[in-house]
Amino acid sequence: MLPPTPLLQGACKGKDLEQDITLRDADVADAEALSALVTPLARHLLDADSGASAHAFLASLTPASFADRLVDKEFAHYVIEDAGALVGMIAMRGDSHIHHLFVSRSSRQRGIARRLWEHALRVHGRREYTVNSSEIAVPVYERFGFASKAAPQTVKGVRFVLMERPRLVARVVQKQYLNDVLPGPGKS
Fold first, then answer.
1. Distance between CA 2 and CA 139 in Å, rounded?
2. Sign, CA torsion 58/59/60/63
3. Full-model pTM
4. CATH number of 5-181
5. CB-based contact 146:114 (threshold 8 Å)
6. Which of 60, 82, 135, 151 is the most exposed place for a label (fewest CB within 10 A)?
7. What pLDDT, on the 0 to 100 scale, is given for residue 54?
8. What is the DSSP secondary structure assignment for residue 46, as one 8-state letter?
9. Is the pLDDT of residue 90 over 90?
10. How far is it, in rounded angstroms, from Cα 109 to Cα 176?
């Protein structure tokens, strides 16, 4: 588990971040707070028009379900706290899928989602990433380099847009790779 990391003040767009904001790994003790943060925000994922049941999805938002994922090695959870209150979280599944990314309504436009995403990138590395985004969050993920891979769809009462972010290769590596595979002037 990583130690709490203070976020840089003023490094984000919008309101200035206060000194007492920290980014850290989540643990089982956070299950209740994670459920309380995510459950009201996740309601916009439900597709009332489909008539399908979203019981399985809603059951995955309980404190007990969060506690199960927090001890599951397939998942990694990172949180941001402001004055001791949890205001944002990202959960990664299998190093390459964003399972959840939520920021409290009162803490939006402060760069918290970007901080969480950038932290996940540092921890999980340069690779292809996927997310099942709510339609409302599509512009956020587009700013993170994701592109829609399909039209909005509803599965088991949950409406989402499948998005993917290609593996990024560092420019220096790309340039060296191209130099190695493409013939230069006077070479054939």
1. 30
2. positive
3. 0.78
4. 3.40.630.30
5. no
6. 151
7. 77
8. B
9. yes
10. 38
Which residues are CB-neighbours of 151 under 8 A, at least 6 positions away?
161
**Phi, psi values for residue 153, rounded to 5°:** -140, 160
Q: Which long-range contacts (CB under 8 A, 24 or more apart) does 124-128 make?
A: 124/76, 124/92, 124/95, 124/96, 125/95, 126/167, 126/168, 126/169, 126/170, 127/95, 127/96, 127/167, 128/96, 128/164, 128/165, 128/166, 128/167
Query: 50: closest CA among 159, 147, 182, 160?
Result: 159
Q: What is the pLDDT of residues 142-152, one digit of tens each?
A: 999 999 999 99
Report whether 112 contacts 80 (CB < 8 A). Answer: yes
Residue 61: both structure tokens together = 């938002």
Q: Which position has the higher pLDDT, 66 or 157?
A: 66
Contact partners, residue 36, CB within 8 Å, separation at least 6: none
Q: How far apart (Å, rounded) are the C-alpha atoms in residues 129 and 184?
A: 34
